Structure formats: C-alpha cells, structure tokens
Amino acid sequence: MNCAVHNWYKFTAGFSYKLIDLIVDGMGERPKCIYEPFAGCGTTLVAAQEKSIESVGNESQKFMCNVINAKLNWNIDRKICDKYMGHILNYINEHKTTNHIDGEYNKLLVSLYDAATLKDLYLLRDFIKKIRREKYRLFFELALSQTLHKSALCPIAVPYICRNKKRTNSGDACNKFQATVCQMLNDLDTMPHKHRFARVYNADSRKKNQAILAGSCDLCITSPPYLNNLDYGEVSKVPSHFFGITNDWHDITEKVRHNLVTAATTHYNDSDFNLENFKKTEFAVNNRQIMSQLEDLFEQIKKNASSRSGKKSFHIMMMHYFEDMYYVLKEMRRILKDGSPAYLILGDSAPYGVYVQTTQILGEIAESVGFSEYSISKIRTRGTKWKNLTYRHNMELSENILEIR
Q: Assuming Cys at both sites, which of 48, 89, 273, 326 could form a disulfide with 55, CB separation 3.0 to 4.6 Å?
C-alpha cells in the first residue's frame, strides 16, 4: 500500500509484490518470462519489470487493463506532463461557467460527489480523453482514478462504497489531481530503469490467448479469485462508470461479469444450471473423482441454504468456479514450458458452514490438465475477524500458496 507505483491503484484483494521477490530470488535460475493469468492491478507484472524480467498477463476488465498499462509505462517525461497539466487547468477554467446538462453525469457518480467536485472531475476526464499519446493519457487517467477515491463524499473501499461514513476531506478535485500526478512522477524517479518489459492483454484466462505462445513462460505467480462470493464485476464500477466503459448493473453483467471466473452468485442464473448436464461437461468427465466429492458438497450447501434467509445458491457457484478454474489451469499448462512451477495464492471456503478444501481441489484439478505434482503451504489463518457475526459459520479458514509443477 505504501510502495511506489504499486500503490497507484489500491485494491483490497491484492497481494504483496514481496512474494514475487521471494520466489524469484529463491530460484536457482532466473526466469525468462513470468505468466500472470489474473493480472488484476498489475502486482506481478510491475514486480517482474522492476527486476528487468519479461512478463505477460491477462486481465479481463478493460479498466483494470488500463490501470496496469499505466503502471508499466515508466518512460514518462516530466516536462511533457507539465505542459499537459497546464492545458488541463486552462480547459477547466474556461469551462467553469458552462451549465450542467441533466443526464450528462452517471447517477452513481452524482450520489458520491458534491456538484462542483463532480463538474471538475468530468472536465478533467473530458480533456484527458483528447490526449493522443496513449501512455500519457493512461497516466493521467490513473491519476484521475485515484482522485475519484480521494474526493468522494464517502469512502470507496473497493469494491464497496461505505455509505454510512463521510469523508472529512472530500472535494477539491483539481488540487488532489495535481498532487497525485506530482507524486506519481516522483515515484517514477525511484524506478531502476525506464524500459517496458511486460505485456498485458485484455483477455479471459479461461480461453486460449493466441498472442501467448505455448511453452513461452517458465514461471507463473498469481492470485485467482477466491470462492467467497466477492463480486469482482463490481470492483471497478465507480471508475468504469465514470470513464464510460459501463453505465449500470446491466452493463457490468454483460460487459464484465461474463468474462470473469465465477466467484459470486451474481455471475449466473440459477435456472440455467442443471446438475445432470453439468456432469457431461469436459471438466466433469476429466475429473470424475473430484466430481463425486463436489456433488456431496453441492447437496450439503444446498440443504444448508434452504434454512438461511438469503438462500444464495453457493452450491451452483462452487460448481461453476471449479469448472472455470479447470480451463484457467489448462491454459496455464499450455503456456508454461515443461518443468516450470506455478504459485497460486488461494483461500479455503466454507459457504453456509460447509468446508470446501479449495486449494487441495485445485491442486488435484491441476494434475488432471497435465501438471505433475502439487504442494500446499499455509500463509495464515483467515476469516476470524467475522467470528462475532451471529449468521456466520465459526470455521477456521486458511490462506495458502498452491505450488504446482
């Protein structure tokens, strides 16, 4: 959270770049190219670039893909930025008196900012969109994304908005934007070089990415979605709506959720799921022993759900999750050359009090797609901060590293 470049977009479900350092520094031979199927906010790719190691990643959310690209473009000229900043501030001053047009601003954004702040934010956005040099446009857009968080009336704790709290230092968008740009430029001065070593694709890791050759990577470090009903489709909804990538809940579903690994009950319709048909899928046929275990869990979760007020279909979510991860692991195996290791940061789950050995099951699925072995190392105990909630299970969960080879 306090490290240069890594903290340009704070994401609560991210992980520490120090893990990449630990793994790479502990390898006997320096990796030639690192693969990251869930690039997220770019932690693995940025850490690899700091070490001048080639890396390649997929990120299915367009906004997050832009964030990553901005974090990887280190050859930014301060003098050019100063010129752009001058033009930006002049543009805002010239348009200060223009009237707001009803419907011009996204409804979610209207509820998060006072009128003057929202107008400044949109003026900043409109000028930045006109910048033709992509790396500078992405740089300023990322600075503006941070400003969205810093100037909101209430805290935006990605992916949730804390409506019951008020920020004491909201507003003042222009000054916060300038300060953010200045800090980002200062951060770039601390980088070990100005070269670009990473590629990121706006792509779904469940599908074959033709741009990444088979056997082209010799290490994978990633943190896939956890099986804990966090809606990653909502992770970037404030900036995504603001930049016009999405406009509402329907857009998030159609343009974002369909391209993500199933990790929340908002990703599917219960009525579309049929267990008997699911047993005929490629995943189920190639993992019959695992399917037997999942069917038992399916029935237990379904039974427990019937007595809960929410009655969320975690049993269906679980099936889709493991099927989706099967295809992610299959593509990972294609991209990694023989003998290469992959490290996955994962958490176990207990939907409606039914314990699911997520890490171990994924290790077994990995073997079904061509990995030779797996091992599990526990990082920490998790879930204990919720133990006082009466509706929550009291099961101790863990966060682990799954190593597959």
A: 48
